[in-house]
Amino acid sequence: MTAKASVSFLEEALAENFGFDTFKGSQEAIIQSLFDGKDTFVIMPTGGGKSLCYQLPGIMMEGCALVISPLIALMKNQVDSIRSHGESDEIAHFLNSSLSKTQMRQVKEDITSGKTKLLFVAPETLTKEENIEFFREARISFVAIDEAHCISEWGHDFRPEYRRIREMLDLIGHNIPIIALTATATPKVQSDIVKNLRMGEDHNTFVSSFNRDNLYYEVRPKGKKEYTFRQIIKIVKEMPDQSGIIYVQSRKSAEEIAQALVVNGVKAAPYHAGLDPKTRSRTQDQFLMEDVDVICATIAFGMGIDKPDVRFVMHYDIPKSIENYYQETGRAGRDGLGGRCIAFYAYKDILKLEKFLRDKPLMEREMGAQLMQEVMAYSETTACRRRFLLHYFGEEYDEVNCNKMCDNCRHPRERVEVTQSVVEALQAVKTLDENYPLKTLTEFVLGKETKQMKDYGFTDLPGFGSGKDKEDVFWSSVFRQALLNNLVRKDIESYGTLKLTKEGEAFLKKPYTFEIPIDHDFEKELADDMRGEADDAKAVVLDETLLLALKDLRKKEAKRLGIPPFVIF
Ligand code: ADP
Ligand code: MG
Ligand code: ZN
């Protein structure tokens, strides 16, 4: 037998405190960086094991680690989990507005006496003067900033107080390392975090791959409510007793879908900001305990929830950004086993979201619109979805590795040769001085005589309308594929204008054969789908009064009364 490689002192501590044999990914190097006293920046996908990167050194180092975290629920979840591993309850505490004065005093005593190794605080708590005073005197080992994307307006859940963390740390005044952790990898968010936290020149950055190869990505056309509800119920029933989350944008949809599932014998519950905290926390516990299988939630659910065996994540409403989508789908298959990620997409929903943006300040509106353009591109693409997602996060990925783990790889579309069209597209980018986004460029080649085209005199430029014999979807496909293949790049700072890359210039000089699949035309696909639905299914209506009556009956044991629970199908 070969001798086992020697176990490092960190590995020993890992086994002792958490019962794990090995570190995941770069956890060990990250922890080592903290021990070296370096500012440390960790970009690791959801489920990658970020918490351990500060929990373990927190337990090991002298003093107490300060962990800044955006949500009370998230802190509670972590404190419970550390206590379950640790020897005493005092080892981890949180300090936030949910505590009484007496409880706060106790927490501070435990820190002073050295019992507490990890303290979770909200950024608001940090800004309170009496706390700053206290932290200034206390022995702090290092500061961890979890969910650090909250610092950036380009992150999916921007929290203004997060921008003041640096200011507070300066007031507290220890010269200790900080570790910032996030699952958001877009270059813009990253640079915002480093800048705002003023991380040291020699800080270490650890970026893990964002590929989750056990997740299957799929987009389906979203039709009328009844149609889509039936699809959802069908999919959920294909996976009996499995845990899943269905994300929606409105409280009403959360309630309705949960109810429709319950009537169909699925243990489902709604979760949204309109429910009181007690109910919400009960629902969350029930989900963890598997008394509830499916949660129909607005985005208020799931951040930091650690349930390893979530088998599916559906989006009834399209999310507002790819970051959101990636984070939310990331909650599936944390245990490494399968996870299905299905998004229902209708162009109408994009328009609805755009309407919400209309009253926002200019900056926010432009930003929101651009994030949504990406979601739209993701939904409509016929390229490998995994490749699209990873490209978005700045990672090159060869789709042959997808292993048919997305709908587009599993059911590939016929490819069309578009070499000449790519030339025309890139030429248009040049003609318009690399100053316009995809939408304007598409309108230009299509020869749309919009007000903008006329006002700017674009209608007289060479190439205007050169592609008018083709459809919109053809040209947006060409531009998006040019993006995916790095012939052009999108400049986020200037509202998503397309710029030619070196590769693009080279292509113009010497074009090579370029074949692409054309994007989905969802309106048409939906019409085909609806036609294909069995007649008997169509005859069933999700009537609200029927739903209510059924819910009532269920309470009185529908079965005993001889009422079949599966009435909808
Ligand atoms: P993140 O914050 O990156 O989304 P978590 O910190 O919640 O991820 O960790 C995800 C899961 O991975 C948790 O169930 C955690 O217990 C587990 N995990 C973390 N590190 C290890 C390890 N070294 N070995 C085994 N499991 C681990
Ligand atoms: Mg986390
Ligand atoms: Zn794929």
TrEMBL record:
GO molecular function, one term: hydrolase activity
Catalytic activity field: Couples ATP hydrolysis with the unwinding of duplex DNA by translocating in the 3'-5' direction
Keywords linked to the UniProt accession: ATP-binding, DNA-binding, Helicase, Hydrolase, Isomerase, Metal-binding, Nucleotide-binding
Listed GO biological process terms: DNA recombination; DNA repair; DNA replication
Occurrences of domain Helicase C-terminal (ranges): 228-379
Cofactor(s) the record lists: Mg(2+); Zn(2+)
EC numbers for this chain: 5.6.2.4
One GO location term (cellular component): cytoplasm
Domain Helicase ATP-binding, chain residue ranges per copy: 31-203
Family per similarity comment: Belongs to the helicase family. RecQ subfamily.
Protein name, per record: ATP-dependent DNA helicase RecQ
Residues of the full protein shown: 1 to 569 of 738
